[in-house]
Specification:
alpha/beta, Alpha-Beta Plaits, Aminopeptidase, 12 helices, binds zinc ion
Length: 457
């Protein structure tokens, strides 16, 4: 049965919560938009029967594209463009299509090779993926010494969000080339001076892990365009293709066992069912090789104090927390306090809200706004700076995990953490927009990341 991308609007919090709790609808774009008179709307994927059931239950539903058919169209464009062999040394900006999984790796190796090798290091991640792929990250830094802040950019966790690795490869290509040649970087009207670029590389350690889930991305680019998870084999005896894979951004060790920590009526976007096509949390926290690789970088480079995970879509810059509404007044009301187990995750109540230090919150928001301004300067797109919780709570995500590390382990550094959801909900197939649009997104997010590197100290 065809599945559609839909915009659903409902009359109040409970109606929106019921989309997940009762109707088991899979939410697509991140943000729940607030409308007039207490109404909300959100993007989702649903088949015709689900659409009719929602309409009958009083929701307003607008159908967009058939996601599988439109996704196949994107794959066909990608295949046709891939037939043209890449000229050696071509940078992302000149490719004209998404990079293949192999090309992301070879582009990363090229960036780390001479003439950039005096200020770059190719890092081999320790865990091979389920399909036996080896992943790499890059460290860009000239010199070393105490007190250098580490900034960690991650991409490619969700398989169908094809563009995040392309953004990060473009970012490392631009940064290394400008550093080596002592030039600035101009992205549309947005300019970074040669001196700003020199300071980034001379004074900070930049870690970029562009493609953390290559198995999933390859599967999405060649088989199922809407695949989200990794490719962990299905449990024994399960033959439904949806029983393959874990949602890596539900697998981190932060409130991972949501059934214990959350209110049973919270509309949590997590599932313990291995056959859930989207949000299966995995058999244990940190169970997946891909998740372990992401965590390994934090453990191996303890000067990392900033983290941004790239996802799509909805044009948001999200900061901690994602499990409940932030509060800055009661430090005892926090994710480690068992007195609140079973009470978390209801966005419009006062029973539980997640504590964040006031100074931290001000600092993360300030940096997020810098990124928003950089994005806007490129071609006018207005990203929203918001808390990660948007009515639907999550657990086991990378950004909450990263910021929680210093609270769980007193010897661990504090990591200010973000998720960027790039790309507009108005793009067709917004998880992997047509490439001419993706090129523009690559430019605006590269500007945001460069601005972040300039401002984060
Ligand atoms: Zn994602």
């Amino acid at each position: 049965m065809p599945r559609y991308r839909i915009t659903v609007s409902g009359k109040d919090y409970d109606a929106m919560a019921d989309l997940v709790r009762k109707h088991k609808i899979s939410i697509a774009g991140h943000t729940v938009k607030k409308l007039a008179k207490g109404r909300y709307r959100v993007h989702a994927h649903a088949d015709g029967a689900q659409v009719r059931a929602l309409e009958k239950a009083g929701y307003k539903v607008k159908r967009h594209e058939d996601v599988d058919k439109a996704g196949k169209q994107r794959q066909a464009e990608f295949r046709a463009a891939s037939k043209k062999r890449l000229a050696e040394g071509t940078q992302v900006a000149g490719v004209g299509r998404y990079l293949t999984v192999t090309e992301v790796e070879s582009a990363l190796s090229a960036v780390a090779a001479p003439p950039n090798d005096s200020f770059t290091e190719l890092i081999t991640l320790p865990q091979k993926t389920w399909e036996d792929r080896v992943c790499h990250a890059i460290k860009i830094a000239k010199g070393d010494g105490l007190g250098r802040p580490g900034i960690y950019f991650l991409g490619g966790i969700h398989a169908r969000e094809w563009g995040s690795p392309d953004i990060l490869i473009n970012f490392v290509e631009q940064l290394t080339q400008a550093y080596r040649t002592s030039t600035g970087i101009t992205i549309g009207p947005k300019k970074f001076t040669a001196s700003q670029i020199q300071k980034i590389v001379n004074e900070k350690d930049i870690y970029v892990f562009p493609q953390a889930n290559p198995d999933g991305r390859h599967h999405s680019m060649t088989k199922d365009p809407n695949w989200r998870k990794n490719r962990r084999p299905a449990p024994a005896g399960r033959t439904n293709p949806h029983c393959v894979g874990v949602d890596l951004n539900r697998n981190y060790d932060f409130l991972w066992d949501f059934t214990k920590y959350f209110d049973p009526s919270a509309p949590v976007r997590n599932s313990t069912n291995p056959c859930d096509p989207e949000v299966y949390i995995g058999p244990s926290p940190d169970s997946e090789p891909e998740t372990k690789n992401v965590v390994w970088l934090f453990d191996s480079y303890p000067n990392i104090s900033y983290f941004i995970d790239l996802h799509s879509y909805s044009e948001d810059i999200l900061y901690t927390w994602g499990d409940d509404v932030d509060q800055t007044t009661d430090p005892n009301m926090n994710f480690q306090n068992p007195a609140y187990d079973g009470k978390r995750g209801i966005a419009n109540d006062t029973v539980y809200k997640e504590y964040i230090n006031r100074g931290d919150k001000a600092a993360v928001v300030k940096l997020a706004r810098r990124m928003r301004e950089a994005i806007k300067a490129v071609r006018g797109r207005e990203y929203l700076v918001e808390q990660a919780l948007s009515l639907y709570p999550t657990a086991g995500t990378s950004d909450d995990y990263a910021y929680s590390r210093h609270l769980v382990g007193p010897n661990k550094p504090k990591v200010y953490s973000y998720t960027i959801e790039w790309g507009s909900e108005n793009n067709p197939t917004p998880f992997h927009p047509p490439y001419n649009e993706m090129q523009k997104i690559i430019q605006e997010i590269t500007a945001a990341l460069l601005e972040f590197c300039v401002r984060a100290t």
